[in-house]
Amino acid sequence: MGVSWFSRRFHGAYTVRTRNPPIPCFQRRLLSGSNSKINGGDSVLPVLIIGAGPVGLVLSILLTKLGVKCAVLEKNKALSKHPQAHFINNRSMEVFRKLNGLADEIMRSQPPVEFWRKFIYCTSLTGPILGSVDHMQPQDFDRIVSPVSVAHFSQYKLTRLLIKQLENIGFRIGSEELSPDDVRLEEHEVLMGHECTSINTNDHGVTVTASFLREGKYMEKDFQCDFLIGTDGAGSTVRKLMAIDMSGEKDLQKLISVHFMSQDLGQYLINERPGMLFFIFNTEAIGVLVAHDLKQGEFVLQVPFYPPQQKLEDFSFKMCERLIFKLVGRELADIDVMDVKPWVMHAEVAESFLSCNNRIILAGDAAHRFPPAGGFGMNTGIQDAHNLAWKLASVINGIAPPSILSTYEMERTQIANFNTALSLQNFKAAMAVPAALGLDPAIANAVHKTINNTVGSILPSELQRVFLDGIFSLGRAQLSDSLLNENNPLGSRRLAKLRQIFEEGKSLQLQFPAEDLGFRYHKGALVSDGDSLSSAPETPTGHRRDYIPSTDPGSRLPHMNIRLLSKLSSRELFSTLDLVSSDNVEFLLVIAPIEESYVLARAAFKVAEELKVPLKVSVMWPEQTVEGISRSDTALSPWKNIVDAVEVKRSPSSPSWWDLCRMTDRGAILVRPDEHIAWRAKSGNHE
Q1: Where does residue 307 fall: left (phi above 0), alpha (psi -120 to 50 degrees), or beta otherwise?
Q2: Coil, strand, or helix at residue 611?
Q3: Coil, helix or strand for 248?
Q4: Is 246 exposed, middle or buried (0-12, 13-18, 19+ CB in 10 A)?
Q5: Which is nearest to 73 in space by CA: 229, 279, 213, 218?
Q6: Distance, CA of 432 to CA of 131 (rounded, Å)
Q7: pLDDT (tens digit per residue) in 211-269
Q8: Which residues form the FAD-binding domain (predicted)?
């Protein structure tokens, strides 16, 4: 029986990959296959997370909900207020639905969708519009394929909500120093101002040395843990200390990020041309403006950066104001530049997500660095945490051996590589617009590289800068009104090419439903049914494609509205995703109310009980049988963890649950704690 085979494999038969780690790694008796609980004793924390960004904070919430003791170290004394990421995709919002109503709070707090559904291309924010793209379609709001929609919500605001969630479940947030002799970091703590400086392993676990400032002097302290998770961003210290290399395309583009406020500009854009991204091209300046919140007047301007001819100190607040005015097309009375930061765009994936016998683990930007095109960075990291949390909890609670953690790397590397390629495609699509206008960014970067490799070693730095600025000024002259108009043959051809790019959907895209909800693990903690996994993973197209529900092993469980038999009188709607518990490591078996499937469920309960793997059975009843439904408790006695659910079709012509899954009602679906399918039988053959 497939359920039995998967359960036994999950319980103790995964092969641990052998590695040649860069530092001596410990071998604990536990790694031999024993499923003893890892509780770390009184002085060892089961899980220590390095980095208090969204990925680390989400992981700490998920682990705490699953009963795992954990704490977080963050090198900064205060959390960043730079907006950074802002697009939260469907799958991440589904994860947030189960974090004590976080998704609902985001939906209430985000700007109205009418303010951010479009990307606008223009010569200035007050000048002619070259084109616009609406990235929202009617089905995006229907909640047919998901119980929740995408969101536009700045990262620092998300971080605030996550901190509030942690405080509500008992976490302490602060930078209080521990006594010099105390090597134990308390569970439920986010310790600010503590930077990881070294990592060592021995027979007792992982020892992390953290540096912190006390009375003007830097001091160090050691902390012990069983598992160390690096969620410390693109420049990850944990990754560097483990000597884990990145592979892919490095240094795609250097940029300056200018965070500023202006309610004057926000109100103007609300009235005249609301949008999320504004791509601005004129003879004086070029930049991309991200409207994080038009009502609050919060923006981030991204402009290309060309060091060493340009220096960070060149971008003073006053200089940034002048640059913004050039792009807006007029001065702003209330402009307030908050922060200026340089950053480098990469498209890379870590060569390993695991080190030291799976005890040191990378997640989020520490494991993969994408171009921001499509918003895959933070979202992929959130889903890393979702995949990792239940596996860590399974090991720590003695349900599975540590070798199951190898499936975290196996599964998430597949997705990271795919999303890297998709982000890169989307970034190149974004570059097609300026290229059509005669401003190919690849040529600009090549010119900059040539200057660095030739006259850069001869000319004084100031002359180099004048030379570079002169070349770029000549390039921006392509955008003059006299050239870029329908009466000029060259300008007319360029504008026609621009229209073609927009009409064919070949510009920068925001949404990728097929990849967002439809990503699938082709190998890992799952069992092939011989029907779907033989095909190779798809290659990214760079275009928006609709999500098609699937129950192929490795896929996310499809969403359908349901009612619970125990709450039929309330008429309250749930999602099939709600059948999967978020409060304990528990597998879900979905069956139809037929005797053959009841036999399967009883056998599955017996195997799960023998192996101490928690299991819940959901019996899915057709909508038309609602009057004659009887609870399944008797059929599945003596087991009690049973939920009877009644499908709710949107219309009489809508597919039933089993039709949606492309299965017969004699089939069965085994779902993992992260809502991905571990095994299925499409018909009555449950072998």
Answers
A1: beta
A2: helix
A3: strand
A4: middle
A5: 229
A6: 13
A7: 998 888 999 999 999 999 999 999 999 999 999 999 999 999 999 999 999 999 999 99
A8: 46-417
